[in-house]
Amino acid sequence: MSDDDDAKQVRSIFISDLHLGTRGAQADLVLEFLRAYDAPQIYLVGDIIDGWRLKSGWYFPQAHNDVIQKLLRKVRKGSKLTYITGNHDEFLRDFAGTQFGGITLVDDCIHETVDGKRLLIIHGDLFDLVVRNAKWLALLGDWAYTIALASNTVVNKVRRLLQLPHWSLSAWAKLKVKNAVNYIGEFETCLAAEARRHGADGVVCGHIHHAAHRQIDGLTYINTGDWVESCTAVVEHHDGRFEIIHWPQYRLKGQPLPAPAVLPVPRPEPALVSEAA
Fold it and tell me: Cβ contacts of residue 253 below 8 Å, gap of 6+?
C-alpha cells in the first residue's frame, strides 16, 4: 500500500515506543503499518522520539524522518493526532498543553470509546519505580538494552529474508524470568489503579514493551507494545472492538495471529499499589 486512500479505516490508532533516533527502531515496519491503517484519531503514547539516545550522539536516518513525515501527512489529511509524552521524550513535557495544527501535546488524556467508556491514555513511566527513583539505573539498563537490540536486529534481518515473523530476544526473556513477570504484573495493576483514580473505565499505555489487552479488577488494561521488539500497535474498530496488531505477521500471513496465552498476573505488594495511588 502506498496511499492512505487504500488503508484500512479504523476509528482510532494507538501506537507507542517507536524510539526514533535509535538503531533499534524498526522505522521501515512502522511506515508499513501507517500506510496500511488510517484513522481520524491517532494517539502517540510516548517514547516516539528517543531523546535519551540522541543526547549521546545524533542518529536520525531518512527512514526515521519518513515516519515523522507520514504522521504529519495524516494530520494534513484530517486526522487528529495526540502526542502523549514519555520518559525518553520527556524534553517535550515542558510544552504539554500546546496545540498546533491538528497536533495536541499532553502528558495524559481521556479517550471516549464508541459505547461511551472513558479510557485514560498515559505512557506509564511515572509508575516505573526504577525510572522515578533511580534514573541512573534506568539509563544503565537502557544501555544494556540497546546492546541486546543490536544483536537481535541481525537475527531478525535473517528471519525476514526467510519470511519468518519478527522475534524478540528481550520479550522472550521477560516472560521466562520470574522477576520480569512480577514487574509486568505490578505495572499493569498500578496503571489500572491510576485509571480508577481518574474515574476512567480503563487505561491505554506503553513503556514496558509488552502488548496486552486484559481486564484487571473490572477495568480494561491495554498496552500498545513497541516498535523495537514486538512491533505492535492497537486499533479501535468502528464497532468498538479493540485489537492488537502484530506487524509484520499480518502483512506476511494476511490474517490475525492466534490469541496469545494470557499469563497469570502476579498480585503486587500492597505498598507498591498504595504508592502508585
Answer: 165
